[in-house]
Amino acid sequence: MDAVARVRWAAVGAEGHVARRTSAWWERAVAARERRAPQRLVHAVLEVVVDGTTTRVDMGPTWGRDAGTRRVVATGPVGSRHLARCALLRYEVRVADGPGAVPGVLRVSPDVAVPPDVLDALADVPRRTWGRDEAGAGEMWTSNSVVAWVLVRAGVRSVEPPAGHRAPGWCAGVRAAGG
Questions:
Q1: Which domain of life is it from (predicted)?
Q2: Domain-by-domain residue ranges, the chain?
Q3: Alpha carbon distance 116, 114 (integer Å)
């Protein structure tokens, strides 16, 4: 069984006016604090192809989603573990079969070989609080963290955010996976 993975790098907020504006504001504030120029923010969507069948891995809010063809494999809190009983303050790690559309794609990484059972690792993905640096990784846990974590656990260290873009949480996922 052959398996490959690729990452679709999409513009943060491609589907929503609020997310796009708040993310841009947040990046300007972080860039000012770090004394650097703001960069375009990207969101990683992992695609794994095993024997011609594509499965996408993503993370997003639990609310406002139609069940569709996705399977929720993990959930976690947003902002604060204490408020996670509220659906507005939870995220889900989900997988969906089929190629599907990813809005706002800017770049697609090259295909990399992965073990055919790479998606089994999702059962072990850390359920850290989105938006917090609970592990002391130097940046917050995000959807990018989950994708980076899965890739590093699969032995892939060659995929990185596109040049000139920033994927908040990417390094947190790499560090959490031991990379």
A1: Bacteria
A2: 3-176
A3: 6
Closest to 157 (Cα-Cα) out of 141, 170, 143: 170
Cβ(1)–Cβ(50) under 8 Å? yes
In one letter, which amino acid is 80? S
Residue whose entry in the numeric block shows the structure tokens 């139609």: 66
Contact 145, 172 (CB under 8 A): yes
* Cα–Cα distance, 131 to 135 (Å, whole number): 12
Tell me the CA distances in angstroms from 25 to 85, 91, 123, one per residue in order: 28, 22, 34
pLDDT digit string, tens, across residues 57-115 = 888 777 765 655 568 888 888 888 888 778 788 888 988 887 677 777 888 999 999 99
Above pLDDT 90, what percent of the chain? 41
| Per-residue tokens: 142 | 């995000």
Alpha-carbon span 135 to 122, nearest angstrom: 19
Regarding beta strands 40-50 and 165-166, do their DSSP bridges make them parallel or antiparallel, or are they unpaired? parallel
